[in-house]
Design goal:
RNA-binding, four-stranded antiparallel β-sheet, four-stranded mixed β-sheet
RNA sequence: GCGCGCGUAGCUCAGUUGGUUAGAGUACUUGCUCGACACGCAAGGGGUCGGAGGUUCGAAUCCUCCCGCGCGCACCA
């Protein structure tokens, strides 16, 4: 490629082709970087989902990471930025199911194996799109080390981790009321649900002598007790007694008029009942409410009735009157029935937060089911201790609080999911568990084994045969191993030796607990070392109006469109320009204009400088010229000063301020002032050649400093016009 | 309910431990096509720094309260 400085700056002509040069050089691979490079710098990329296409959040994260990686590379570090993609269990499965639906297919019609074939085919087809998009941003990751969280080796790592926990006795199987998404047909952890405030109704229902309030009257069919606060004097006389109440008879067919039925229900005392709220009486529905389940654990004598099925419809046990109705339909029906029978005292309007699936938005149905759990107390302790001791630094520090708050009140992690796409649990089991329900933790040893210990394919207790668990692991269980599993763990690889622990992890605040915390305790547990030294939590990109960018809301901005319109470097400029710290960014198109103008400025300043030296060869700019005039002294000193500030800013992950400082120097000090005075200086034969050297020196070194931010234009100019030790700017050393 | 963050020029944002006429980008006004660049240069208009108190010789910067916006967490029956 030949640069034509007689033409105005055109990003299309300049940027294309640069990326290929870098890839061909091999410099993204730390082992192929020139020079001695004793110091090592490592980052792992937060692996994007294979379902995804690049959004502004990615563009921000990867641009900042890339700037850091390039800076460190130039600083002489053996720099590894390890890329990958995530299989993203539920998200990907949903995407493929949607695709199938277009053909009128449903995953159960295909069966597990066929369905997984479809997912792999889908991954082949779409999984690389995001990689291409990353490349068009200029991401300097080592693609030769690209990993996928469902690679063969990675699957081994996940199984190894599971077995490790299993042998420690930290994995158990239990029957619990968990968050259930009836659309995805799987359990979800607490971190995988989102609350939305919704208008609802609050129903006051007569229970014999008592009245209680509830937002979910349909779960009344699964009530097995009433609870009051032990200190509540109003209800003291009922505690421990069974009371007789009139209730709706669920055995009357739906077509017929509702009838009353007399049932008995026990009143228990439990601190979970708040005397201040409602009437102070609550119904206990352990199978469909997580808080009620916890009450049940304190009162195991209370029976459990499951009246809602995994499909989100009322079950057999709800009685023929309600059976098969969707939850909301059943609610309508039972309210109507109770009204007719005079059981409903009053209805109030109220607002409350309703849980939804974070992947598909369906309302969460708490549901009793058998799941696998990982005990968290010891792991949480490790994670807290190491951050408290400062082994891992959070930037900005305030995010530590979010991390500590979660870990301090940690609950055991529900790690099983009832989907097909993911890491299948390496356990062989029979269903249901034959140990009697105790409410506590089930001793599952007799009911499940991991493969290696499976010499007796029958349960010692009930003699039932074993089969491999149908469940897969929570996606985050495998992501938690990323910093070391991506480097080859559990094998003892050279990479693991060289590159673990990593230096910096950069990501959005939304996954501090979902991912970062889990990497921290996993790293400590399996490697005995923290997975990264610094967690840099970057801003979230919002719309100009301050809304969340989202495809479904139509508020998203596609970075690829911006790149097509403004070019890669201009988009990077706009991102970094606005990345002023942890503060959220209200995306402003003005920054793109500023970027465009700045690139034009660089181009034209270069044109001027090169017009001063007609050397046909590549120009040497390594020699530091001696300043002669006052203007010479000023520009040389200013360059030194600003270079130092940039380094300091970058070391503390202040990308925006770093860029702005140098923008100011380059535009005003160098172009507006020195370039202008140089025009006079070159008239003087005594100053002419030295002035030329200063122009070259400042320009060449400015391109170096701007390279982490604007890699394409700087590389294009420098690698063509300047004599570089390794032919490319990317492998040059940072100015001294 | 608890916690966190934010409210500074029309718009998007800086403003490091309190200290001279509060800055940048963008937009706007005027002049300038002089051999890097009109995606430019030079000059300029525009802010009682959300509000009210307080500390101080001095506060956008520290303290208290209030108002507005955003986010996170909570056993929300």
């Amino acid at each position: 490629m030949k640069l034509d400085f007689s033409q105005p700056y055109d990003f299309k002509k300049i940027e294309d082709g640069i990326y290929r040069k870098w890839e061909e050089s091999g410099y993204f691979n730390p082992d192929k970087l020139p020079g001695k490079r004793k110091k090592v710098f490592t980052m792992v990329m937060a692996p994007p989902n294979i379902t995804g296409s690049l959004h502004m959040g990615h563009a921000l994260e990867y641009t900042l990471s890339d700037a850091l990686a390039r800076y460190k590379r130039m600083q002489g570090y053996k720099t590894l930025w390890l890329p990958g993609t995530d299989h993203a269990g539920i998200a990907t499965q949903n995407a493929v199911e949607k695709e199938l639906k277009k053909e009128g297919l449903f995953r159960h019609q295909l069966g597990r194996e066929k369905f997984l074939e479809k997912v792999w085919a889908w991954r082949e087809k779409y999984g690389h799109i995001i990689i291409q998009q990353l490349k068009s941003l200029g991401v300097s990751a080592d693609w030769s080390r690209l990993r996928f969280t469902m690679d063969q080796d990675y699957q081994k790592a996940v199984a190894e981790a599971f077995i490790h926990y299993y042998e420690k006795g930290w994995i158990y199987r239990g029957e619990r009321t968990i968050n259930w998404c009836s659309r995805c047909a799987t359990s979800l952890s607490d971190l995988e649900i989102e609350y939305k405030e919704e208008d609802g109704k609050f129903y006051y229902i007569k229970y014999g002598p008592l009245t209680l309030g509830t937002a979910r009257p349909e779960t009344k069919l699964g009530d097995t007790a009433l609870a009051v606060n032990p200190k509540d004097k109003r209800y003291k006389k009922y505690v421990g007694k069974e009371i007789e109440i009139q209730s709706v008879d669920p055995s009357i067919p739906r077509e017929a008029e509702p009838k009353l039925k007399t049932i008995k229900i026990k009143v228990i005392a439990d601190p979970a009942a708040d005397p201040e709220f409602g009437t102070g009486v609550i119904k206990v529905t352990p199978a469909h409410d997580i808080a009620d389940f916890e009450i049940w654990q304190r009162h195991p004598e209370v029976p459990i009735t499951q009246v809602i099925g995994p499909n989100g419809r009322m079950s057999e046990k709800a009685g023929i009157r309600y059976r098969d109705l969707k939850v909301v339909e059943a609610r309508k029906q039972i309210v109507e029935d109770m009204q007719k029978l005079g059981l409903l005292e009053k209805i109030e309007e109220y607002k409350h937060n309703v849980a939804h699936c974070y992947r598909c938005g369906t309302m969460i149905e708490p549901m009793l089911s058998q799941q696998w759990f990982l005990k968290m107390p010891e792991l949480a302790k490790l994670a807290i201790y190491n951050v408290k001791k400062g082994k891992i630094k959070f930037h900005p520090k305030r995010w530590e609080k979010v991390y500590f708050d979660w870990l301090k009140n940690i609950k055991d992690w529900c790690i099983s999911r009832q989907i097909w796409w993911g890491h299948r649990l390496p356990v062989w089991q029979h269903d249901p568990i034959c140990i009697p329900k105790s409410g506590g933790e089930n001793n599952f040893e007799d009911c499940a084994l991991w493969q290696a210990s499976l010499n007796e394919p029958k349960c010692r207790k009930c003699l039932a045969g074993f089969h491999q668990s149908e469940d897969v692991l929570d996606t985050w269980f495998s992501s938690a191993l990323w910093p070391f599993a991506a480097l080859g763990w559990p094998m003892k690889t050279g990479d693991l030796d060289k590159f673990y622990p990593t230096d910096v992890l950069m990501n959005d605040r939304g996954i501090i607990n979902l991912w970062d915390a889990r990497m921290i305790f996993s790293g400590l547990e399996f490697m005995g070392k923290i997975p990264f030294r610094v967690l840099s939590v970057h801003a979230t990109v919002l719309t100009r109006e301050g809304q969340r960018m989202s495809k479904s809301l139509g508020t998203g901005i596609d970075p690829m469109e911006l790149i097509a319109k403004y070019g890669r470097d201009a988009v990077r400029f706009a991102i970094i320009w606005q990345a002023m710290g942890g503060q959220d960014i209200r995306w402003s198109e003005d920054a793109l204009i500023a970027g465009k103008k700045f690139l034009n400025k660089i181009w034209n300043a270069s044109r001027f400088v090169f017009s001063q030296s007609q050397s046909p060869d590549k120009i040497d700019f390594a020699q530091k010229p001696r300043p002669q005039t006052n203007d010479d002294k000023k520009i040389m000193a200013n360059f030194q000063k600003n270079k130092k500030i940039i380094s300091r800013r970058l070391e503390s992950y202040e990308f925006g301020p770093a860029l702005r400082v140098f923008y100011d120097f380059f535009w005003h000090d160098f172009c507006d002032q020195y370039l202008e005075s140089s025009k006079k200086q070159v008239q003087d034969p005594k100053l002419k050649s030295n002035t030329g050297r200063i122009l070259i020196y400042i320009l060449g070194n400015s391109l170096k400093i701007l390279h982490p931010f604007l890699p394409h234009i700087t590389e294009a100019i420098a690698s063509e016009k300047f004599g570089l030790k390794n032919n490319l700017l990317i492998a040059e050393s940072w100015p001294r």
